[in-house]
Amino acid sequence: MSGALNGAERFDRAYAADPDPWRVDSSAYERHKREATLAMLGGRRFGSALEVGCGTGALSERLAAFCESVLASDFSAVAVALAERRLARIANVTVARLRFPEQIRPQGFELVVCSEILYYLDPQTFEQRALAWFAEAVACGASVLVVDWRGGGETEPLRGDDVHAQLRAALSVNHRDGAVHPRYRLDLFEPGCGLRPPRGGSQACGPRRTDRSR
Question: 0.90 exceeded by the pTM?
Fold first, then answer.
């Protein structure tokens, strides 16, 4: 299945066995990465924001403080249930089970945050669909912040450094800032440099739309 991120069932099993399998709330690495992610946004305020691959919702919880609305998305049903529980009292956050890039359209967001997700995509989906998705999101006015682990795994089809190299090549005129840490890296892409939506993409940048079909 295109863009299956190694299969939702893998993540469903991980979250069912442990509600925080990657120690998002307790590890120093995750805390440091989360603070660096927020710091790169420079304290700006945004209207509508999207987090791709929200997991249990730890980052979306923080994004809600300076965004008018946040769509926290994940393709794992178990992760979505955990995020809904965590974020239930935050009125400006909506949690949805959506697969990236197939079920999320890039128009209508002022901020898109994608943390430790893209290296799970199969190379064809990343190169042919995800890169075009980000190009259209930026062309339609979104600031796009991508964060990835730099290590290699046995089941991840891509490596974080390769993902970021391709993003920076595809969106070179929109690259505003970046940081490379020993274990992770960040890149920020901003609109306003005249990049047009990719061929075959939407002809107009309209309000946020999502496709919740299965």
Answer: no
